[in-house]
Amino acid sequence: MASEQNNPGFDRILLDPAAHYDSPADVVSDEQFPVSARIEILRRWEYDAADASVAAEEGMPGGNGELIADIIKALQDLGAEIDTERTAPTKQGGLGRSSIKTDK
Asked: Are 7 and 73 in contact, with CB atoms under 8 Å apart?
């Protein structure tokens, strides 16, 4: 993923994947980045969605249960194995790097 780290477009996408893609499936089909970069984009998007779900739980508008399911499916479509037992020790419970395994 070294070449993506020098790509300002990739950096902008990581900051807000939802602003650049209409759905997680669009990330899967975006072949301008290697699979490892697409997995990172989806991981970041999942964290953002989990954060919004926590906000909804606390009475703020939002709620992203369906989006999170779509992101997990997209990660699996890219060949990432999801270990749901290993989530971050935060209220968001996002998918940390150690919970997403890939050979790509």
From this structure: no
